[in-house]
Amino acid sequence: MTPEHLIQQYGYAALVMGTFVEGEAVLLLGGMAACLNLLALPGVILAGVAGTVLADQVYFTLGRKGGGAILARRPPWEARSARLFALLERYPALLIVGYRYLYGLRTATLVCLGMSRVPLRRFLPLNLLGALLWAAAVSGVGFWFGRATGVPTGLKGAGAALSAAFVLLLAVALLLRRRR
């Protein structure tokens, strides 16, 4: 079984699961796979939306059930939570749609949202909108990156190109995580 076949067979499921761990890197690779005609760009976007909304719902629910204890165990989150609650008071809809772009605050923001008075019926549609915008933007950048770097647009060599890109993005993600 070739890498190309594996990507075509399991790519969307891998994207859904990957967004739980490192969403941006996974969707960049998904966009590149779409550039290589291994996956369809709309499918990559939908997989990204599905995975991130599921992950977000988990953290939102954890915030509802025991957010105070979660913040207490993570002093950096607790220190940022006052700022997040202030933003939530002033710009609730904007924060729910755009928190994905607050580097280093994504999970803490979701826990704080869960702790807030924002009802699920308000959170969910705004979260879906934010997830769609985010998944389309990140997947589109991956697609554009594939085109701009001259990655072959056929199946020949796609497995090697995606494997190299995956290793590079994983290394960058690990370095950024270690730095934080």
Written overview of the protein:
With 180 residues, the protein is mainly α. The radius of gyration is 18 Å and the shape is elongated. Helix 1 (3-35) crosses helix 6 (120-148). It has seven helices and no strands. It has one domain.
Topology:
Blueprint: H1 3-35, H2 41-73, H3 75-90, H4 92-98, H5 106-115, H6 120-148, H7 158-179
Give a short overview.
The protein has seven helices and no strands. It has helices at 3-35, 41-73, 75-90, 92-98, 106-115, 120-148, 158-179.
Properties at a glance:
single chain, 180 residues, mainly alpha, 0% strand, elongated
Radius of gyration: 18 Å
The domain tally reads: 1
Number of extended strands: 0
Summed up, the helix count is 7
Q: What distance separates the N and C termini?
A: 38 Å
User: Which stretches are poorly predicted, pLDDT < 50 over at least 5 residues?
Assistant: none
Assess the beta-strand content as a share of residues: under 5%
Percentage of residues assigned to helices: over 70%
Report the average pLDDT across residues: 81
Order of helical and strand elements: HHHHHHH
Overall form = elongated
What is the makeup of the main sheet?
A: none
Structural class: mainly alpha
